[in-house]
Write a structure and sequence with these properties.
By secondary structure, the chain is α/β, with parallel strands linked by helices. The chain folds into 2 domains: about 10-85, 60s Ribosomal Protein L30, Chain: A (2-Layer Sandwich); about 100-235, SPOUT methyltransferase, trefoil knot domain (Alpha/beta knot, 3-Layer(aba) Sandwich), CATH 3.40.1280.10. Helices cover about 35% and strands about 20% of the residues. It is built from 10 helices and 10 strands. The strands form 2 sheets. Strands 7-6-5-9-8-10 form a 6-stranded parallel β-sheet. It has a 4-stranded mixed β-sheet with strand order 1-4-2-3, sandwiched between helices. Helix 5 (about 110-120) links the parallel strand 5 (about 100-105) and strand 6 (about 125-130). The radius of gyration is 19 Å and the shape is elongated.
Length: about 240
Amino acid sequence: MISSTQNPQIKLAVKLRDSARARREHGLFFLEGYRLCMDALDNGYTPELLLCTDQHDLPNAVRISESVAQKLSDTVNTQGVFGVWRVPVGADANPPATKLVALENLQDPANLGAIARTAEALGIHGLVVSGGCDVHHPKALRASMGALLRLPVTQVDNLPTWLHACDLPTYAAVPTDGNWHALSGHCVVVIGNEGNGLSADAIAACDAQVTIPMRGRAESLNAAAAAAILMWEMCK
């Protein structure tokens, strides 16, 4: 039983929960919740540490007190199940080159998670993520309902360079001045930052620009909403 919030393992888990830098340095990430932890196990992730309160009976899990669970929890009502997981070797391998969504400097982990969840549901084959929030951010993992643990994700430092080298047709999603292209078939749709959209270099690196037709006075859509519409067009 771990009952102290100053336990080294608990302090590391909190760091992994809160810090993308700590996740990169240790090659580990943090999960909260029974379902997410079971999803990780089912998808071949290696647990460095499983933690649970007395209300659960998980094999190989270390028991923790309620006070420790509250320290670890990032939710209003904790389930009392937590895990520290190893980022798998080869996690940055290129996904299958068919239907992909690329994300540039997405800042909101909830948007990242929502896009991953929709991508998996509609049949997108993988994500390419450049800059922005960490794919192992707890809020992104939670919003994805485990999709970020299952979808192939490529993380790249320079998205325009990746787009130039890509063999698939590439479409930059822009709020105005783009055409409404037929996206069925193998291609990459590129979604930008919530506030500023895509960088000029990323737009220039794409083969064409695509704009979602909109009525009314709205200037743009939320990144996750725009991505959902475009992914539907890719997969319908």
